[in-house]
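Convert to structure. Protein one:
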Amino acid sequence: MQTLPQSPSHASPNSQDRSRPPAHVADAGKPRTATGPDLEVEIISFKKFTRGALCGWVDVLLPQLGLKILSVGLFEKDGKRWLKLPQCEFESSSGERKFSSLIEFTDREAHDKFQRPALAALDVFRHGGDL
């Protein structure tokens, strides 16, 4: 049985002091929320991590669903930004590094309903201010 790597910031709920964020975590003092046409998105934390188009890891709360999505990737390339839902990494039989989605949207419309308010909430979280 293959062991999957732990997400970058969530090795164990008890492995870190949650009373204050680590120095590399953006802390806007409180979670920030943005609401799209049908979805409210709250940013819990952002951890900067730069590798290629990857800019960092975001923890997101969808309050209407009571759902936290941890380790959402923030990507930026050629002036475009997007969030990528969590994936697991594995090695193919040929030794190639591959990724597999853990959760995904059913269609482009659902994807966009998440992206717009999530990116807006992330901007406020990282740079302060109100929506």
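Protein two, convert as well:
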Amino acid sequence: MDSHFISGLILNKYYQDPGIRVSRYSLEGEKNHHAYYNRLGFIRVYAKDFTPAHLDPEEVKNTNKQFYEKATNVLESKKNMVFSPEGYSYSTDDSPGPFNEGIFKLACGMKNDPLIVPVVMANFDKLASETTFKCEIKPPFRLSEQGVNSANDSSFPLFIENLNKQYKNWVYELKQENTNFKLEIETLKNSVDKIKEKEGLVVFYGSSTIRLWKNLKEDFSQPNFLNLGFGGAFIHSLSEFFETLFQFENPKAIVLYLGGNDLTLGFSPEQIFEKINKLVFKIKKKYPNVLIFHVSVKPSLERINELDKIKKINYLLKNQSSEINGFIQIDVYESLLTHEYNFMKSTLKTFPIFGGINPILNTTIIHPNNEKTFLEIKCLFMDVHNSLSQLFHCC
């Protein structure tokens, strides 16, 4: 199921190509397994515990050796390949198992050192009703960047061993349940506590669009900025943790981005508007004189079927901004819409790895680097930049 997720919800969704996977040959009685995988053009190998008993071990070995030639052809044709270096299925609690050397030997033997993109999966061995499926894409690397240029290098087995240990840590961290954003809120509280000068803060508060805006201080002239965004936040989450996080007096301004995630909960535009409205009044009650900048809900391919709802939310909030003193709506919808359908397509080609697509499309995949910051702030969020810079300058 985890491989299906990578092929279907990452590669096929954003590159229109599910990539080539490595799958085991079917056993004699597995007719449905054979019918499904045999039509997809995957590289087939014999797998541990799934090899017909009547086959000669030498035949199995020779067949599996053909993997190298087939996989090389796939990569040299500029196609993505999805593989498990374990070559066997393990539960999340036991993952990863020992890594086989095969795919890494393949990478070492190629003329053009391919990018390897670690994808960490958790909980795909459990029922959807009992868990949260998790996927984290780590920064890509080449073996040569790790000091490995040949499978004969003394560093080769040590690299595989260390990567396996790193994966164990990644899986462990990913599978931890972050109930009610507990870990993120604790981290944000620590960030607040470390600030020496809390008077006149400009606070950015919202979901992952805020959380991943890493270079606020570089993008604006204001030095006293604080990012209190946390990924996946709903309006009720932001309201719940408002008093916990805002333990300081007289912020100069609060910049909000919220509402998009609440569409996944089935709320109508009117309901989302009311929830945002209540949070705005909650903020105004604590800080009567604070300026509140609300960044309109942005369009994205993730919510292409809900653009009318997004426009309605933005329309309601824009009208409301004229009714509340110190509440300013920054409308980025139209300019972002142009970028989403034109700029975005060229961007996908410019960044032919996972990290290039994830930031703009606002996917649920966690991504550690700052591609989102570069692309959205520099290319898409100029409306926010210009509006805030002008208003902060005169306030």
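The longest helix spans residues 155-175. Confidence is low (pLDDT under 50) at residues 340-382, 391-395.
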